[in-house]
Design goal:
202 residues, five-stranded parallel sheet, four-stranded mixed sheet
């Protein structure tokens, strides 16, 4: 099992950072939930992944993702720079940089991952009890499609690709520590916060 990171607190006791992993089919509302939690002051910091996809909407390099070309991404794989990476969609790579995990750990924060289901299960396996894995589930595939259409950031073709993938991803829900059904957003936020507080206080 990997160590995440220990940092020294003001009273010089050693405190270990924790990891919170969010996975979900695209469009379930995972980013909405993660952004709401990050603003609540639980010493949480978002792990900015690398991806070979192009920025969407107002996304900025180094904010939502480190945007890389496919060649740059492959070079980082060769160099062993990733804790984990996946070809989430055909020819589109996503990965967690070791440097990102080290940076967040060195400032003493808990780290929040937004990764696909396979990445989520892998990170949980690496860190065991130091990690809480949360699966955000949409109420139905129809509702998922509606959310992706309303979000207005993907072409019809990309939406269909995400829906096809979602059907596979839902089968992995039971492998997560906690499943949050995001039907009513306020209720989903409340349950997520409760699970987080419980985990951080363990
Ligand atoms: P993900 O990060 O899982 O791809 P987003 O957080 O981008 O999903 O959410 C997809 C869309 O659904 C966004 O437009 C978001 O505002 C909307 N959304 C999120 N949660 C809900 C909810 N409970 N009910 C209705 N719409 C929602
Ligand atoms: P999107 O293109 O909607 O931002 O992300 C598509 C999928 O890639 C989502 O399921 C998201 O969680 C996943 N993803 C984002 N970053 C990473 C990562 O670093 N590793 C893995 N395995 N998946 C990621």
């Amino acid at each position: 099992m990997k160590d995440f990171c220990y940092h020294t607190t003001v009273n010089k006791s050693k405190k270990e950072g924790k990891l919170i992993i969010f996975s979900a089919p695209s469009g379930s509302g995972k980013s909405t939930i993660v952004q709401a939690l990050l603003s609540k002051g639980f010493n949480l910091e978002f792990s900015i992944s690398a991806t070979s996809r192009a920025p969407r909407g107002n996304e900025k390099n180094g904010v939502e993702y480190h945007f890389l070309s496919p060649d740059e991404f492959r070079a980082k794989i060769e160099e062993g720079d990733f804790l984990e990476w996946e070809e989430v969609y055909e020819n589109t790579y996503y990965g967690t940089l070791k440097s990102e995990v080290n940076r967040i750990c060195s400032v003493g924060n808990n780290i929040v991952f937004d990764v696909d289901v396979v990445g989520g299960i892998n990170i949980k396996k690496m860190y065991g009890d130091k990690a809480l894995s949360i699966f955000v589930q949409p109420p139905s595939i129809d509702e998922l499609r509606k959310r992706l259409v309303n979000r207005g950031t993907d072409s019809e073709e990309k939406i269909e690709m995400r829906i096809a993938k979602a059907e596979e991803e839902l089968a992995y829900a039971s492998e997560f520590d906690q499943v949050i059904i995001n039907d009513n957003l306020d209720k989903a936020l409340e349950s997520t916060e409760k699970a987080l507080i419980n985990f951080l206080n363990k």
